[in-house]
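Lab manual, section 2.4: Encoding a predicted structure.

Procedure: take the sequence of the chain (196 residues), apply the prediction step described in section 2.3, and record the output as C-alpha cells. A sample record is shown.
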Amino acid sequence: MAQDARSRWRITANSPVVLTFVAACFAATLAGQLTGGAATFLAFSTYRSPLLNPLTYLRLFTHVLGHSGWGHLFGNMVYILLLGPLLEEKYGSRTLLETIATTAVVTGLINMALFPRQALCGASGVCFAFILLSSLTSFREGEIPLTFVLVALLFLGQEIVQGMFAIDNVSNLSHIVGGVIGASLGFGRAGASPRL
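Recorded output:
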C-alpha cells in the first residue's frame, strides 16, 4: 500500500510563465558568461542607444533576462521561484506575463531617460514587483492589508536609504519602480478571478 502511494508522486510544471522566465534568465546569463559579457551588453541590457536601432526596443524587454553573474541571477531567481507560482495561481499566467513585461519596459525607459550612460540588466525590478504584488493577494475592496503597508514601508525605506548612501551597481530606482508596478497591478486586479 505504501509503495502505491509513493509511486503517485511526480514533478509537475506548475507555473509555466515563471518556469519559462527562469529558464530564459539562465540561458541569457549563460550566454553572457560564455561571451565574456558581450551577449549581455548586446542583447540583455538596456541603455540609451539610437532609436533607429531595432535592438533598442528588443532590449527594453530582454534586459530583465540578463544578469551580471551567477550570484546576481540566483539571488533574483530565489524570489521569482518562491513568489511567482503563488501569483500565477492567483492572478493567472497572462497577468503575470503582463507584470513582467510592464516592469521590464517601464524600468528600461526610466533607465534610458535618467541614466543614459549606465546599462541596466537583471530581474530585480520584477522581483520587487512580485514582492509588493504578493503582499496584496488578500486585498479586498475598501481594505488595505497591514502586511502590505509594512512591506511597502520597509521596502521603500530600505531602497531610499541604499540609493542615497550605498555606492554599488544596484539600481535602487528599478527596485522602487518594480514595487510600484506590482502594487498598482495588485490594487487594479483586486478581487479579479484568476484567468489564463
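Check your result against the sample. The chain has one domain: 14-188.
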